[in-house]
Specification:
Blueprint (H helix, E strand, L loop, with lengths): L1 E5 L4 H6 L5 E10 L2 H12 L12 E3 L27 H6 L4 E4 L5 H9 L3 E4 L5 H5 L2 E8 L8 E15 L6 H7 L2
Parallel strand pairs: 1-2, 2-3, 3-4, 4-5
Antiparallel strand pairs: 2-7, 5-7, 6-7
């Protein structure tokens, strides 16, 4: 089913999304990859506040290439999500409701998704140039020293993703494998 949603991504919206749904996101979301996740994790260990509000927000696991002239961002394809699995359960427990990446997630992340009525989306790997066309604004908001791994706030319009793991734990990768 095609679904058009706006951010913030509330738990109520997450509860309506099902594994296999095609979703088009409009609004704000954040980017963060390995280095930014590690820095947020370490900040939490010493009771420092995070540079972004997690509640009802989406983190896109992406490190963009440099923007071409007249564009807010370069190629913006997803990175492998499992590299963030060490950090994701705690971020979910702090209110994160959506993650976008590619690939499978650990049992602990899936449990965190279910426990927090969240959702895991996949963006199409290899389609970074096309995905970047859905990004209308991009600005670094934290950890600028990390370069492409800095945290960015993106403004997106009809950003295309697929629900891979819904808040009930239904997993599109397993469903597709079982139907073969």
């Amino acid at each position: 089913m095609d679904r058009y949603i706006n951010t913030p991504l509330t738990k109520e919206v997450c509860k309506d999304l099902k594994a296999g749904d095609y979703v088009y996101i409009t609004g704000k979301m954040y980017t963060a990859r390995d280095a930014a996740h590690e820095r947020m994790y370490n900040a939490l260990r010493v009771n420092e506040s995070l540079p972004i509000e997690l509640k009802d927000n989406i983190i896109y696991y992406m490190g963009p290439s440099p923007a071409r002239q007249g564009r807010p961002i370069g190629s913006a394809g997803p990175t492998t999500s499992s590299r963030m699995d060490k950090y994701a359960p705690e971020l979910l427990d702090l209110g994160l409701t959506g993650m976008i990446g590619k690939g499978k997630r650990s049992k602990e992340v899936i449990e965190g998704i279910i426990r927090n009525d969240a959702v895991y989306f996949a963006a199409v790997g290899g389609a970074g140039a096309l995905l970047s066309q859905r990004i209308k604004e991009s600005k670094v908001i934290a950890y600028d020293d990390l370069g492409t791994e800095a945290i960015r706030e993106l403004t997106v319009e009809n950003f295309p993703v697929i629900v891979v793991i819904d808040c009930e734990g239904n997993n599109l990768y397993e469903i597709a494998q079982n139907n073969d």
